[in-house]
Amino acid sequence: MTDSWLIPTAKSTRDLVFDMLRDRILSGELRHGEKLSEVPLAERLGVSRTPLREALARLTAAGYLQPAESTGLVVVDPFQNLDELIIRRAALDAVAAHLAARRASDAQLAALMAITEQYRRTDPLDLAERRGLNHRFHAAITTAANSHQVAREAEHFQLFFASDRLMQALTPDETEGAIRDHMLIAEAIRARDPFEAERLAREHIYGAYRRYLSPE
């Protein structure tokens, strides 16, 4: 039986360590308040301390970790500022959809429409498939935006919002609404209507997570 925490030697890079730890924080396997120490963590992951140290610095900068009172780092609840993240995600998705409507190649449009159709046929109760297709849909729009800056900023948000904690919270009606939203956004991008695509993308995020946006 293999240890699911062990990073394969051929892939023991800073980015893979970052991805693994981020995913475990989002899933709750690494719990809020849990302390991480560099030496035992490096041994558990099977990596040297240099890429681990770099990954931990990135996780701290991204808000997943914070310095402990003494030494080491502690896990931060990534959902504690969810309202702010939703607002930022809505703005970024709106930009990506606007640019995609302007810049997408024919091949990128075809890929987006294929994913949208596949998502439409997905069983709303199949969380794993919905999560994967939801990520692919938004990633396809990001790719079609043809913007390195948007791509860099979008990666964190797309993976965060594809976490089980948020996907499982969606009701069947909200899931059906999200599927309809995806179809409308994709059609606006295919129609080369950047302002409509932008509006729909923003409203899609607000609609899906409105329950978390309580007034101050």
UniProtKB/TrEMBL annotation:
<dbReference type="InterPro" id="IPR008920">
    <property type="entry name" value="TF_FadR/GntR_C"/>
</dbReference>
<dbReference type="GO" id="GO:0003700">
    <property type="term" value="F:DNA-binding transcription factor activity"/>
</dbReference>
<dbReference type="InterPro" id="IPR036388">
    <property type="entry name" value="WH-like_DNA-bd_sf"/>
</dbReference>
<feature type="domain" description="HTH gntR-type">
    <location>
        <begin position="11"/>
        <end position="78"/>
    </location>
</feature>
<dbReference type="InterPro" id="IPR011711">
    <property type="entry name" value="GntR_C"/>
</dbReference>
<dbReference type="InterPro" id="IPR000524">
    <property type="entry name" value="Tscrpt_reg_HTH_GntR"/>
</dbReference>
<dbReference type="Pfam" id="PF07729">
    <property type="entry name" value="FCD"/>
</dbReference>
<protein>
    <recommendedName>
        <fullName>HTH gntR-type domain-containing protein</fullName>
    </recommendedName>
</protein>
<keyword id="KW-0805">Transcription regulation</keyword>
<keyword id="KW-0804">Transcription</keyword>
<dbReference type="InterPro" id="IPR036390">
    <property type="entry name" value="WH_DNA-bd_sf"/>
</dbReference>
<keyword id="KW-0238">DNA-binding</keyword>
<dbReference type="Pfam" id="PF00392">
    <property type="entry name" value="GntR"/>
</dbReference>
<dbReference type="GO" id="GO:0003677">
    <property type="term" value="F:DNA binding"/>
</dbReference>
